[in-house]
Amino acid sequence: MSKIYLVTLRPLEPYFFGDGKNLNFPNQSEKLKTEYYVESLKIPSQSTLLGALRYMVLKKCGQLNSDGSLSLNKEQKELVGERGFSIHNNATKYGVIEKIGSVFLLDKENHCYIPCPLNSKKEDAYKPFRLTNVKTGNFCKTVPLDYDAKGGLNYDGWIGLKDQELVVRDNMFLSREQVGILKEKKLTEKAFFKRKYYMLNNCFKFAFFIQLNETFLQKDGTGIWEDILMMGQKQSTFSFKCQEVACSQGVVKEYKSLLTELGKIQKEGTDLTVYYAASPVIFKEQPECEFYISENKTFQYTNPKIRKSSDDNKLKTDVTYISKAGSVFYLAGDEQEQKFKNSYDLNSCITAGFNKIYKLEDNENEFKIL
Questions:
Q1: Among positive and negative, which fits the CA dihedral 31, 37, 38, 39?
Q2: How far apart are CA 351 and CA 47, in angstroms?
Q3: What is the pTM of this model?
Q4: Do residues 95 and 61 make contact, with C-beta atoms less than 8 angstroms apart?
Q5: Which residues contact 132 (CB under 8 A, 6 or more apart)?
Q6: Pick from 4, 78, 138, 275: CA 20 to 30 A from residue 94's CA?
Q7: CA 91 to each of CA 45, 83, 221, 346: distance values in angstroms, whole numbers, following the listed order
Q8: Are 174 and 198 in contact (CB under 8 A)?
């Protein structure tokens, strides 16, 4: 048996989440080197959240290795699985952690904000592009009628509900820059670099749903699990809280209502079926769509099929491309919809909170939080 919980993370200090990039980029001229500046991701990746949860489960059960070793014994593996996220491990659960959801934001009144769909202008009010068909020779292309290339897309916006109206905000994050010194370089101007940290506005916190084995928190009796979590490249501190979703029905209802309102407004711009990515998406093959709006970026992960050397037990990282949360896909017909669903049907990714894609409809009963 399983239970669904709501996890919230409130940063207690500026944080730095990496994306696998180093400060030095090889084969670049001195003019093009960007080693002097590195910027944090604004939100933790799904693999970071999974890793943090695995750590917290071991901590709660008194199973952390005292020597800091990452190797796991049989009992630890039963609690958190054999290894962390990888596209290739095909995990359907990680011990007592059966599934985690995509990250979103909650304000102090527990109103939800999710990544703004990319099919809109950079404005305070959300209004999806109207699509039209343009004939080019023997072909017909679908294009957005009111797209303004100079204005760009709302890449950093978050969308929520206010008085049952969709509103877009982009003031959730604060930043702070800090100068660092590269240890391996002589103390010259090239030894210094800037690191950009982020901090959530005091009104906000990160949130995501998780599904746990029912017996894990049963012995506590309260259904609430609170602790301090250290996370990110600089081990920043976060206030961690996990409680049964039954205690957070208002959040669940608003989350579904938000998706429902997005579904209603899509009909104003197109007759096609619209799918929205609430999380980053890793496709196993190029999706077939009539039209889509997305931003791709590189994603680094551990690949158990690659080792650093034949006599080394350490796993090597690999890189793939992911589509950013907020990506929007337009489809026509049942056959194309099924092919699209098959293109991101990866158990390991879905379990870890990637590939959370909703078909935008005006019926909230169709939306599942996990």
A1: negative
A2: 10
A3: 0.88
A4: no
A5: 142, 143, 144, 145
A6: 275
A7: 18, 9, 29, 10
A8: yes
Bridge partners of 174, per DSSP, are 199
Going residue by residue through the chain, which has 370 residues, state the pLDDT in tens, using 9 for 90 and above.
Answer: 789 999 999 999 999 998 655 444 444 444 444 456 788 999 999 999 999 999 999 999 999 988 777 789 999 999 999 888 888 777 788 999 999 999 999 999 999 999 999 998 777 788 888 888 887 777 778 888 888 877 778 788 999 988 778 888 888 999 998 876 655 555 555 666 788 999 999 889 999 999 999 888 876 666 789 999 999 988 999 999 999 988 788 999 999 999 999 999 988 778 899 999 999 999 988 888 999 999 988 887 776 665 555 445 555 667 788 999 999 999 999 999 999 999 999 999 999 999 999 999 877 767 888 8
Name every residue whose Cβ is closer than 8 Å to that of residue 287 and which is 6 or more positions away in sequence: 329, 339, 340, 343, 344
Which residues neighbour 245 within 8 Å (Cβ) at sequence distance 6 or greater?
Answer: 3, 4, 5, 6, 209, 251, 252, 369
Q: Position 192: which residue type?
A: F
CB 313 within 8 A of CB 267: no
Amino acid residing at 40: S
